[in-house]
Every structure is written in structure tokens, then in C-alpha cells.
């Protein structure tokens, strides 16, 4: 056990020494990885800050059934009761808006009051407004329920916002693809930078590695310092990225507070919690170590 600890401590010391032996090259590589990692951290801060705002905005669509003018309010109530009983799993709320109430609401709007005053009678129908529950297949459910309810007896016209829901679904799908591509790009940058760093170190230590093999050093002993070099690069770059993101959020929050104030709202960006940051550091270190292992395996075959 002591021998194993001694070997790993020696490999870690060698990795530190190799980082410090080429300060400018190491600093450039660390900056590249750190700046790349800063982007998803700031993106995550935006997502975390946006979650409370998104929860306040209802994205559930409403379907409005306009009853034929030949039917009275009792017909609208019976349709509402039928929908509430038969589609309890899909419907969050059902309410009836009488034609007189709808007319009074329009008359209360100055833009419509003069035009409505010249009408001899109320041309508006009774309406049944149905609010749907949030589901993953919301656009499909809106289309299916609309086709079903427009054939109900007494229903004249159906109005719904399925197009808006479809646009929302398309935007969310686009954002998911964008975030996935950003994550893939970050992984590729980390792997490529660490791979090239370890490659240059392995080539510069070519003679030292050859001598170590001649005196009986195992492949694990030869590769271990390079693995620590990759892991250290990932850890240091991750910590630097967190610091960069923290500094970048200061001016961003100042301008965001001014913007949110114009809407009488409070909004601030903050870093992910400590557990997520530690998990990110560990993930980057593992990826960097794997890239280092791949690089040293390919470039020490001599």
C-alpha cells in the first residue's frame, strides 16, 4: 500500500513539475480550456435564473368553443359539464362565458365601446373556455381534442392556440439541440487540448521514457504522470472557468437588474450550486485524464 501511494505521489509531483516547466504553454492551454468551460457555466446560470420566470408564465393552451347562436346558456353549461367529466385527465379547468358577460367586457374597452354602441343586439355567442393540463405531447393533444370537440352538438366554431404551442415546442427543441452541440464542442476542446499537451510532453520526454523502460519501468509507471498531468489540467482549468464565470456575472447582473426593473421584476444570475460545480470539475478531470491516456498510449510507442 505504501509503495502504491509513493508511486502516485511521485507521479503527481512529476505532473506538477511538467506543468511548471513550460509556464507559457501550460498557461495558454489552461486559458483555452477555462474560457471554453466558462460558456456552459454562464449558460447554466441563465437557465437557473429563468426557471422561476418560466414557472410564472403559463404555457398551457386554451381551447375556446363558441356555441351556436340558436342555443342558450344551458347548452353551453351542459357541454362544459360533459367535457369536464369525460376528459378529466386532459382538462385543468373549464369555464363558461355567457354572451352578455363577453359583451360587457368588450364595452369596457374604450377601443370597442363606440363601435358596439351602434349594434341593435348582442352578436356574440356563449363560449366554453377549456384550459388543458401540461403534457409532453401537448401539440398532438391540442389537435386531437380540437377535432373531437368541434363535432359536438351545439358547437359552432373552435378557436385554439395549437400553432403557438407548436412554435414553442420547436423553440424548445432548437434550444436543446443548441445546448447539446455546445456541450459536445466543450468536450472536444478539452479532449483535443489535453491530447496535444500530453503529446508534446511525451515527445519532449522521449529519451527519459526510453531510459526508464530500459531499467525496468512498467507501462503504468511511465503513463501515470501523464494521466495526472491531464487531470490536473482539467481541474485547474475548471476552477479558473468558475472564477471567470463569477467575474463575468457581476456586470451582467448590473445590467440585468436595470432591465428587470423596467418590468417591475427582480432577476439575478448565479452560479450553479456547489454540488453541481464539483461534479463538473470531476467530470472534466476524468475526460482530461482519459484524453491523456489515449495520447500517451499513441505517442510513446517507440
Automatic annotation (TrEMBL):
It comes from Neopusillimonas maritima. Belongs to the ABC-4 integral membrane protein family. FtsX subfamily. Its main location: membrane. One of its GO terms (biological process) is cell division. This is Cell division protein FtsX. PANTHER family: CELL DIVISION PROTEIN FTSX. Residues 181-296 form the ABC3 transporter permease C-terminal domain. The chain crosses the membrane at residues 27-50, 168-195, 226-249, 277-296. Keywords: Cell cycle, Cell division, Cell inner membrane, Cell membrane, Membrane, Transmembrane, Transmembrane helix. Residues 62-158 form the FtsX extracellular domain. The keyword Cell cycle applies. The keyword Cell membrane applies. It is a multi-pass membrane protein. GO terms for cellular component: cell division site; plasma membrane. Pfam families: FtsX (PF02687), FtsX_ECD (PF18075). It is found in: Cell inner membrane; Cell membrane. Part of the ABC transporter FtsEX involved in cellular division.
